[in-house]
Amino acid sequence: MEQVTPPVIGTLPAGARNSIADVAGVTVGHCTLDQGDLQTGVTVVRPHAGNPYLQKVPAACAVINGFGKSVGLVQVEELGVLETPVALTNTFAVGAVAQAQIREAIAANPEIGRTLPTVNPLVFECNDGYLNDIQAMAVNGGHYEAACTAAGPDVESGAVGAGRGMSAFGVKGGIGTASRLAGGYCVGALVLANFGTPESLVVAGRHVGSELAARLAAPAPEPEKGSIIMIVATDAPLDARQLRRLALRAGAGLARTGSVYGHGSGDIALAFSNAYTVPHHATEPMPAVALLHESRLDPLFRAAADSVEQAILHALWHAVTLRGRDGHARQALLDVMPELRNPT
User: Fold this and answer.
1) Is position 133 annotated as part of the catalytic site?
2) Region 230-251 average pLDDT
3) CB distance 230 to 269 below 8 Å
4) Can you give the pLDDT at residue 1?
5) What is the assigned CATH class of domain 20-282+289-339?
6) Catalytic: which of 200, 265, 273, 307?
7) Burial letters for 141-172: b for 16+ Cβ neighbours within 10 Å, e otherwise?
8) Is the full-model pTM beyond 0.90?
9) Other CB atoms closer than 10 Å to residue 255's CB: what's the count?
10) d(Cα 84, Cα 202) in Å, to the nearest integer?
11) Into which family does the record put it (predicted)?
């Protein structure tokens, strides 16, 4: 397959893979459904290789625009930790994937819901109903399990996993990932891109939306009704409050691509650190961690914004033209604007 590379965002160096998996210990797995009208899937981000229920990681979310149907955000906001992997899927599959997460946690920790507290599943969603027969509710627990089994350090982008049926800027969207090194730490991002109107697209500061809309023969501009999920990981020692500040900077990278966080758009960011873990059992000591000083956060903020913007471009550059439900189709951006291939 031809290798295509989007413009490089910012001046910070990328990690070795230019993906969220450059944060040591983070792995990603996809399960893709590609069966005629069924164009959907599941993507899983694992923060570390251990038991996420017993070894929680600090985390925080930032709801930039809350037109979404995710599950688990309230407890993350309150307690500031993750206790399952992070799952991405389509809107109508949230319940099935959440149940699969609960079953996975119980299998690893049989006393959950008995002598142990219940578990907080964390599932994010975007609506892939244009290309996927979302009413078929085809995603099940086995697909979540397959994505978990497939999790590894090599992260595929484009029309894979949860990104299979997603659209962005009137063309094919999907999964994208990137990383940046800053302040002696790594910040990585993974996005599920399903947002934006054609006329609004900006690529590395260049407004290409007008030309894109013209080539797509797009109708008069309509309100933005898509969504994007942005997962930001770091190995910097941050607490939940600092991670919320980091998550908010994902919005800067999103805005640079042309989004205005429209009324009907669900724009949600989650940030976590795997620099340390928080034990579930009160009998185990809490970690004695020297947190990063507030005055040293600016490089990480820049890394979060740049990696999110870069990840969105990777989602667009690695997408493929796809036909799905009832003959609906989305062209890949590079099929519509081939001059964007391999920019210098």
Assistant:
1) no
2) 98
3) yes
4) 44
5) alpha beta
6) 265
7) bebbbbbbebbeeebbbbbbbbbbbbbbbbbb
8) yes
9) 17
10) 35
11) Belongs to the peptidase S58 family.
CA 84 to chain centre: 15
CA-to-CA distance for 198 and 167, rounded, in angstroms?
A: 11
The rounded distance, in Å, linking the Cα atoms of 115 and 180 is 42
User: Pick the catalytic residue: 227, 259, 273, 307?
Assistant: 227
Half-sphere exposure of 248 (CA within 13 A, CB side): 8
Check pLDDT > 80 for residue 180.
yes
- 298: annotated active-site residue: no
Q: Is 273 a catalytic residue?
A: no
Residues 6+ apart with CB under 8 A from 154: 17, 21
Pairing of the two strands 123-126 and 86-90: parallel
Which candidate in 267, 273, 306, 307 is catalytic? 267
82: helix, strand or coil: strand
* pLDDT at 98 > cutoff 90: yes
CA 24 to chain centre: 17
DSSP string over 266-311:
EEEEEEEE-SS-EESSTTSPPP---PPPGGG-HHHHHHHHHHHHHH
d(CA 31, CA 127): 17
pLDDT given at position 224: 81
Query: Cα separation of 229 and 235, whole Å?
Result: 20
Residue 219 has a pLDDT of 77
Cα 123 to Cα 37: distance, rounded to the nearest angstrom? 23
Segment 214-240 mean pLDDT: 91
